[in-house]
What does this fold into?
Amino acid sequence: MDTRERVRALERMMLIRAYEETVIALHAEQRAAGTCTAVGQEAAAVGVVSALSADDQILTNHRSAGHLLARGADPGRMLAEVMGRRDGYCGGKSGSLHIAAKELGVVLTSTIVGGELSLVTGVALSRSMLGGEGIVACFFGDGAACEGRFHESLNLAAVWNLPILYVCENNQWQAFVHRRETTLADGVAPQAAAYGMDWRTVDGNDVDAVRAAAERAVATIRETRKPFLLEVQTYRLRGHFEPDDQSYVDPQELERWRARDPILLARNRLITEGHLSDAAAQEMEAAVKGRMEQAAAFAEASPFPGFEALTTDVYA
Amino acid sequence: MDTRERVRALERMMLIRAYEETVIALHAEQRAAGTCTAVGQEAAAVGVVSALSADDQILTNHRSAGHLLARGADPGRMLAEVMGRRDGYCGGKSGSLHIAAKELGVVLTSTIVGGELSLVTGVALSRSMLGGEGIVACFFGDGAACEGRFHESLNLAAVWNLPILYVCENNQWQAFVHRRETTLADGVAPQAAAYGMDWRTVDGNDVDAVRAAAERAVATIRETRKPFLLEVQTYRLRGHFEPDDQSYVDPQELERWRARDPILLARNRLITEGHLSDAAAQEMEAAVKGRMEQAAAFAEASPFPGFEALTTDVYA
Amino acid sequence: MQTMTVTDAVSAALAEEMRRDDRVLIFGEGVATKRKDLLAEFGAARVRNTPLAEGIIAGTAAGAAATGLRPVVDLLFAPFLCYAMDEIVNSAGKLRYMSGGQFAFPMVVLAMTGGGWGVGAQHNHNVEAWFVHSPGLKVVMPSTAADYKGLLKAAIRDENPVLFFTDIALGYAPGAVPEGEVVVPLGKAAVRREGADVTLVSYAKSVHACLQAADRLAAQGMAAEVIDLRTLKPLDEETILRSARKTGRVVVVHEASRMCGVGAEIAALVAEKAFGDLRAPVMRLTGPDAPAPASFPLEQAFAPSADAVVETVGRLVGLVPA
Amino acid sequence: MQTMTVTDAVSAALAEEMRRDDRVLIFGEGVATKRKDLLAEFGAARVRNTPLAEGIIAGTAAGAAATGLRPVVDLLFAPFLCYAMDEIVNSAGKLRYMSGGQFAFPMVVLAMTGGGWGVGAQHNHNVEAWFVHSPGLKVVMPSTAADYKGLLKAAIRDENPVLFFTDIALGYAPGAVPEGEVVVPLGKAAVRREGADVTLVSYAKSVHACLQAADRLAAQGMAAEVIDLRTLKPLDEETILRSARKTGRVVVVHEASRMCGVGAEIAALVAEKAFGDLRAPVMRLTGPDAPAPASFPLEQAFAPSADAVVETVGRLVGLVPA
Ligand SMILES: Cc1ncc(C[n+]2csc(CCOP(=O)(O)OP(=O)(O)O)c2C)c(N)n1
Ligand SMILES: Cc1ncc(C[n+]2csc(CCOP(=O)(O)OP(=O)(O)O)c2C)c(N)n1
Ligand SMILES: [Mg+2]
Ligand SMILES: [Mg+2]
It folds into this structure.
């Protein structure tokens, strides 16, 4: 990434953070249903998604806001969806947890943990059979890697040579259960080796490192047309779902990771390196907040769907 | 194993072979429904099961006849079950593919591939919570290792320290699909490492080697109360299901493995080492065939269940 | 009598049964985190978090149930049962029969469902009819705090696999629960209100819509009898048929979709066994044949309302004047 | 006309559709091994063996369908669908709706079911009603070779996920199949025999039991109309209701179990919409609420026989004399 891109990556991370804070506020005021945020995981989203090309596709999970926004989704239409309005990406039918946006190549946000893993092989099969250079990125959590579908998906992708970038966002939590209670393995990525798949683990709070690793992985997949598993080590700074008091979280662990907030890290690094002034950073932050106010106003102005929508789009 | 035990193991393998040949003949004469045999895999069954104690338990899959017979099941009651008769182990309700025999500690023959993997963790949980020294052996195929349940089962067993001997009978086939079409991995067992589980691979056509490996695995489990994965490399000498012309099988591969028939190997070795005469071996063979004739007669004399059995045993 | 929410009634039932029988244990994703009280009282062996994998959770329950334990597993939301169908249907439901009665499967599967949370069709899908259709299983879906407690206790004591559904909308609903031991037998419906003009059959939150409707109908001079099924399998045919024969008019109400739902079963039952006493068509009022929407007003409109019940009864009476 | 077995009719439909549309592909455990002809004609990319994992097979189909392919997947036996419920129900069935219509899921899932093979309840379980109950899916279960061909072709052309069930007992049944293009539209029942005294509604092999029964009833002077549903969802309500109104007597016959089965749906439909024309209770004749036994005589007794149909009609007529 050149400097301009690095500043842009920081801005994107700020945008994602501002978006999620907006959703949290809307929920607290009972203007939107509860949701899952990925506060603290912004570097993973921006680092990976910015390494993709426009004709690549994405499948993701319940913590998808960052992936969508990194891909250029309109926060107004996202908030409209979260608030169940007609102008949402899915007309209000999906709500916060399943936003798909065909125009952006976002085929699926699955809230069934593992749904993204079970569909991605088919999307990649279409890519390889219908031609083109495109690859498919699949974001999933460390929890999803406990579901059998993880194993089934990786094995099939390996055997069929499917062009998939598997991205495990290992945020140390699986809802209310810490990762260490669910596996004896250190990381998820080494399992890829059992399927004959290439893999790598990267510091998920360092957006430059994620971006560099993702670029290399994407280049490998484009060349070999084989799947690759990238594990992004990060941390879920907020609760599983809004609201959640995190009473079950070890405060010291949380503090350690808070100190490594990816936005803080990127911002400080750019300032230290002399690529960004504090004032410019504050301006960026103010700008994304302004954008969110507009987005929320747009969403709230959007009407609820009419009752006929209850039964449209069931069958093609 | 001492010599007596080795001769006994050969006899058990002969018994299993004779049993399966009886089922094949009964099916050919339309006196029994079709079934899955494990001809060529007798050393795996006898080697592992003979390493277990009386209070250990077993869960197995559709190729379970060898496991049951190695455990001491009555071939008459087994054949009665295969023929759908009242004196079958399950009163004729299970048929050939799901024989359970509580009195022998055989909790389950699952024909849902993977069913044995999904229940074994619970059986082992009972063992560890209700006390006692017992462990649980779970037989499954290389195909079952492609199902997500394999991964879920091993992971849970590792995390919860369950006393399970996982036995993967890798017979190179998954119904009509050769193993090499379904995975890029060489063997199944190394996957255990990803779950922090101990494992070993053994020549499954050498009953002495299987028995020795199983004994060590069982001893380890009894001591550590942790699971262990033993992979037994063998080959399915007949088709997937009776009848099956095996037209899809590479004749050279089949020939190579036929030459390594586990019964042939064990018999020749005992004769070469001077522990058995050819005449004694032939006598043993004649004896097990005689037993099978009696068993078939017993089964055929057993009545079909009455129609009231259609709806008994549904609820406790 | 004490007042408690459905959630607390469920917790009380779990604690009492775990105290009574040390073979009872509970596990699932987050169970030990969320049920700190149970963890403290019964320890880590009997109150367990699991890895995120519904299939093996249900399979582990079935294996444990077959060999001496009495597991309760929390699979969280009904759509997640899709990952555990093999273990529930092919193993827990069938293996007693397939083994010729050698094994029993005393286990309870908990799952939440229904509208009220606004998070859409991958958390909200009323699939109770699937399990009613499958052999070897029992299915419970109560409507009151007292029944949540009493039926869960009965479910834990039952020798068969029981699917125990909690209607999300009722989770925080307070209700009167008798002090001391409350065990409500499986397979018995409750007549929540007596009436001679029409029978409203329902379960879970729809019972409350029916009770509201019955109030309004009473104001119009119609006496509605309201039956709360409570257990969907085994179904209390006797209570349903007795009422159908009395009133001659039956409306079945539930949030689950129409085709092959529990309402279809009840309508079919009545049309066969109370045919001679029917004075009007048997009507079903159900959720639409569509996934559950997330959008709040749509989600609210998805489940049958008291208004819709009143309107349907009105049409029924208009259709075939008594 | 040509004579072919159901199995051959299915193969012919697959070959024709793959020839017509190169987006159609087929995969599953052993598909490439068993369908050598398709493999030879269409190549290894479009005719694939898979690893043994139903969930990912169905999920791959859904993902491929959403993005331009038209997959057919063979999941072998109906009980194995339990491993793929999430992909079929939560993904293929719901994601069109949940995405606000952005994606379609043109895919076909093949599975065999029913008695006839003697291998018990983990291969034989009629679960078609589950999918009828679930939104966004279509369900097909034909009874004749011509319909297996024509409906499979229609299913492959449909823009929605279709569950296509083959009744094991019919696999080798020969039947007349028209030459040339045969496409049978989804959602249309067939009246296999006309009659004015009683309507027998069924599908799959039970249609043949009903036709035999109709012959015997005719000898007793009763004219039975036999309706073959063919498609279970969407259900051809019009054809069912027209016949019910004409005869005033309906018996629904299927091998699947009774509670919340397709028979319940039809009985409920008739009891609501043809109530005024009914002359007798609506009867269901179904398999018992039990897993399928392996034992041959029990397995044969599991499914409703022609004798049982005749006997039920007899009771019906005795019950309420015309
Ligand atoms: C099949 C399924 N099981 C359980 C849940 C409930 N649930 C939602 S998110 C979550 C944790 C997922 O953990 P992980 O995959 O690590 O993703 P993260 O939430 O940490 O981003 C759980 C258990 C679900 N949505 N789907
Ligand atoms: C869930 C499920 N899928 C498919 C089948 C059909 N089937 C029966 S055995 C078999 C192959 C199993 O292979 P493996 O596990 O290696 O065992 P093996 O037959 O080789 O002993 C298949 C596909 C099944 N019984 N259950
Ligand atoms: Mg996580
Ligand atoms: Mg095998």
About this structure: Chain B touches chain C at residues 57, 59, 88-94, 98, 100-102, 107-108, 110, 112, 114-115, 117-127, 129-130, 148-149, 152-153, 155-156, 159-160, 312-316 (CB under 8 Å). Chain B has one domain: 3-300.
